Amino acid sequence: MKRLLALVLVLGGILPAELRAETLNLLIWEKYIAPKILERWTIETGITVRQIYFDNGDERDRLLADPDSDIDLAILNENVTSLYSRNGKLVEVSDQTVPSAKNSVPRWRERCAGYALPYFWGTLGIVYRSDKITTPPTSWMDLLKPQNEFSGHIAMQTGYDDLLTPALIVGGSKVSSQDGPELKRAFEILAVQAPFVKTYDYVITSAQNVTYGKDLYMALAYSGDQFVLSDTTSFPWKYVLPKEGSVLWVDCLGVNANSKRRESAMRFLNFVNEPDVAAENAVYLSLPTTNAAAMPLLPEKMRNDPQIFPSEDVVSTSQFYEEYPASVVQLRKRIVSAVTSIHDAQ
Fold first, then answer.
1. 213 inside domain
2. In this predicted structure, what is the pLDDT of residue 25?
3. How far is the C-alpha of 236 from the C-alpha of 134, rounded, in Å?
4. Which residues contact 342 (CB under 8 A, 6 or more apart)?
């Protein structure tokens, strides 16, 4: 009788939670967490993690807004984190709810608004194939107005922040400009560039495209992308920070307030911010950790590599993105749409 009851419980799917397999849904950029970290988590907890990739901010926002996507955790930039926290879409993070939060560098933790943990940080710049471009780019203009020989070999992005940033910087404007004439000038620069662009898909994705990936030589990208690109394409990619300056980005990892597995999601958040885990993840991705306690665990060569950890001069002179009112967001999105339409009409 006891065996029969146990069988009924299993078939009925009403075993206690600790005895049932559980899966967390993580919304994340592709190749943005070390596989061994996920394996270790599953071994220690019995909980698996399913990665759901997004390619740009709009796609991420759509997935988070879709109740059928069943997202538990998500990678967010700092502005979206702040917005979502005010809208009640994220679970609050404190030293009590996530004990490992105390390991985060205060500078980066503040950018996540108390509703997520800083995951990684870096800059926006240019990646290029050193086997095709022998003279490294030094200016945003090398990307915005490339030599004719690179026409059709450029990749950009469709984010209403990132796409406009190079054009705003060379125009002498702030990267978060809300000024109509300044944004119009940025559009005009991007419209001139459009015929040179092969794709507006994120370079990590587009470089793996079997049709044209091998033809991409230069792209708008984030620091650290060069390592992923070199690994996934077998071509030698390098990264440069243009002389005109750039923007600092901070990615935050937060728990969806509507998660059906909130307790496990918060546990995972605490896990990835443990010093040894954060250090292993940073080494695998060759990205600058936001975890102060993980820093001493990194190889000295990595800590001293300016390609990974920008100098304090770069940090202090770079800009952060700011929040925009809805009207500015819509204007920026219209600019992105107009630029891509010019490109597609060629």
1. yes
2. 97
3. 11
4. 191, 194
User: Is 10 a residue whose pLDDT tops 70?
Assistant: no
Q: How far apart are CA 168 and CA 182, in angstroms?
A: 7
- 63 within a domain of the structure (yes/no): yes
For 61, the token pair is 């926002």
Question: Alpha-carbon torsion 127, 132, 134, 138, what sign?
Answer: negative
CA torsion 104→106→107→110, rounded to 10°? 100
For 277, counting Cβ atoms within 10 Å of its Cβ (0-12 exposed, 13-18 middle, 19+ buried), the class is: buried
pTM to 2 decimal places: 0.87
Number of domains in the chain: 2
Is the pLDDT reported for residue 14 higher than 60? no
What is the overall mean pLDDT for the chain? 92
For residue 154, is it within any domain? yes
Residue 38 sits in the same domain as residue 89: yes
The answer on 270 and 203 residing in a single domain is: no
By the 8 A CB rule, do 166 and 242 touch? yes
Angle at 222 between CA 288 and CA 187, to 5 degrees: 150
Query: Exposed, middle or buried, 47 (CB in 10 Å: 0-12/13-18/19+)?
Result: middle
The span from the CA of 337 to the CA of 310, in Å, is 33
pLDDT of residue 55: 85
The answer to whether residues 104 and 140 belong to one domain is no
What would the two tokens of residue 283 be? 């080494």
- Do 111 and 129 fall within a single domain? no
Reading the block at residue 46, the tokens are 């019995």
Same domain for 42 and 133?
no
